[in-house]
## 1
Amino acid sequence: MIVILSSNVAENSKEYRLTLDYLSRLPGIATRIHNVQGAQQVLTEIYLIGDTKTLSVEDIRVLPGVERVIRVSEEYRILGRHRDGQRVSGFEYNGVSFSQDTLNVFAGLCAVDTSEHVELMLKALRDHGQVCTRMGAYKPRTNPYSFQGHGKSCLNYVFELAGKYDIKVIAMEITHESHVDEIHECLEQTGRPTGVMLQIGTRNTQNFELLKAVGRQQDFPVLFKRGFGITLNESLNAAEYLASEGNSRVVFCLRGVKTNMGDPHRNLVDFSHVPVLKRLTRMPVCIDPSHSVGSRERSPDGLYDLMHATAQGVVAGANMVLVDFHPVPTKALVDGPQAMLLEELGWFLEDVATARECYEKRQILAAQRVAS
Ligand code: PEP
Ligand code: MN
């Protein structure tokens, strides 16, 4: 059960204390307080954990300072929607908004290789009005002899170049909790020229200790990838580990699932789950066409399969697109064959905008139908 306090109830107020006293005396029920940053104000949500079935919503709703009481299911209780359209969703990070209504493109390098390539990429993004990117420094690889990413040693120039080209948010995968400290330290040393969204890769979707560590920190929001071989429900429960530890600034990313039924694509594209995620949770939903499709094959209409997949996700309401680009894909150290070229960036962005317009028209049609 979630008890939401009115926005004007301060932590040191009498109402706050009276209500919290009452709730903490409920037998067998533990309380956990979450301060949720909305667009305008901070909201206090009190989670009642334990056997809440016998509690009466009415008895709690009349306590001082209480605005709403929501009965939630056991699963993903913080990130879930629970048929309550009014709860705050989305967040702002380093001046960029992330919600179920926004759309941000994160085009960039799968893996950082040279500072020249990073600079070419970031300059192209700036020239196209983009403020977000992806840059892999820590790469989880199937083969231990494959390039594992430059790690800490590239962070300095990546962050400084991001600042130079007005990039506000970099999606960067981490595979160990020590990477969070390395990123934090380097951002401090370089004077915080940019922001980082920590990416949990599909191989770590159920690395619960990593999720708890990332959930405990409040500095960085998280881009959480769906597990490639588990159900959507299992992935959502795993994402909830982040929120249960205190970090609910989470974007959920679809990236395809592993099965030969998806051949010749790298994974079976699962972007029809975009609306499902929006219905079940309050998280913004990202799609990763590069790691779903995994190639630069095109169909007779001249469009890459990965552009078609992107459009399918965006037409279904996706809020973020994570996509591999590279200035010289033949020289990329990871995933060159699926990278789009810098000279294709403008085309890609226009294609995304076209798909987004289509989604917005579809929303209007749906609203007219409900109104009639
Ligand atoms: C990536 O985005 O670079 C990546 C490795 O993705 P995934 O974890 O989805 O395979
Ligand atoms: Mn990759």
## 2
Amino acid sequence: MSTTTRRSVAIYMGSDSDLTVMAEAARILRRLDVPFELEVSSAHRTPDRTVELVRTAPDRGVRVFILGAGAAAHLAGVVAAHTTLPVLGVPLSGTDLQGLDALLSTVQMPAGIPVGTLAIGKAGAANAAWLAAAILALDDDDLGARLRAERASMAAKVEAKSAAAKDRLTGLLGD
Ligand code: RP5
């Protein structure tokens, strides 16, 4: 790969029906100014395309994979089988089992082929992005500083909500 290519994250999902949830990962990466590519590719319906994307990803600068899939979710496992880069799986709800099927498919990988599995749905997609950024920040001090600033901002919001809750309680109790 070119030394000028920025290190990036690949967000792949098994179906376009997964996009609304997986957009949460893209939203966080954009906020952190982390480049990403986004593709729809299925482990079952387009297995060759999936493998080709993974094999060529390092040349495009990809250093971490985020995979979202529902039902009998094999996308993260298949990607992990074809790369030694970090692979993060997001189980998605799309069947009567409401994501439990995808969670078990994604998390129960055989020893040696790891998939870091996040929560089902939007929280998992967002946390996959936060975790991917943390991985890239291991040797990117500017990104690390942006992550610390985001944490400080979250903490400030909680403190503001705590103060507001005390005010609301006073009103609720009629003091
Ligand atoms: C999975 O099957 C996809 O990731 C999606 O969550 C689910 C249903 O796909 P569609 O039938 O909506 O294309 O492979």
